[in-house]
């Protein structure tokens, strides 16, 4: 793919004109308050993975409307002290897969919570385990048009609420796993419901809950960016090629999926564009970025038609905290791949120090 978006010097100055809904903050405050009426941890089960250097738990936490959401929680083996935690969100169509698949952050010495994405996990990868119990009006194949005629019923309202609750769960988990040693792998906890994360509790060493960072690529990057604007006290944010940023412009310059799903929906539902764009404005990462304050590392490939670079820059350029962006001029949606992971490791180590 040749360069198709704005030149880099214009991207660095670019500002989105996507309108922000006037009730944006009350909408999200209400969504999160309702979700937080449920205890966050539902079940924490040690699992045998065959890996000697990490310990893993199968976690179920209460997401949107208390719906059960699955996750893998992995820590360096045998470490009983508090650890910084990285909460990771997944790309479009991927489920949490198997716990052996994503080991970068625990091998780097962090605790790692990998959130399953409701209703996804059958497009590629090793599968997912979290259904979406909410139906929707007619939608195109995929996820991005489900419930799209109303912000209250929109699919990503549920996903982003789940994602904030994953941070709540990460803050509660250190105390919970202290009661579920890996030697009991394959058995359920004998001590009833795990502690909630509505207040900061004690970790395995009895101290305060350690810092939390969020990370994601593509859909996962868009989710992590929204969480940065919705969750408090994050230590760091890493978003690569984030989806759902400056959505009106993306619809104008690319037909690539998932944005192409919205285009096909509107090609059938003629005249619904005003309703659809209003709904999408509640999840647009540009609006969430304005409210975020944690240090952030963005990344984009300048030839990326799936998550166009102008959307990434639109969010970066209004981000409410310190932010830098890694630019890969000759790359598409794959971006920097392992080279960028190396950069993330160095960048995060300076902002999430280990005990």
Automatic annotation (TrEMBL):
Per the Swiss-Prot or TrEMBL record, the active site comprises 218, 304, 333
Entry binding sites for substrate: 92
Feature: compositional bias, Low complexity = 176-185
Instruction: Tell me where on the tree of life, at the top rank, the source sits.
Output: Bacteria
Q: What is a GO molecular function of this protein?
A: carboxylic ester hydrolase activity
Q: Which InterPro entries does the entry link to?
A: AB_hydrolase_fold, AXE1_dom, CE7
Q: Which Pfam families match?
A: AXE1
User: Which protein is depicted?
Assistant: Acetylxylan esterase
**Organism of origin:** Cellulomonas xylanilytica
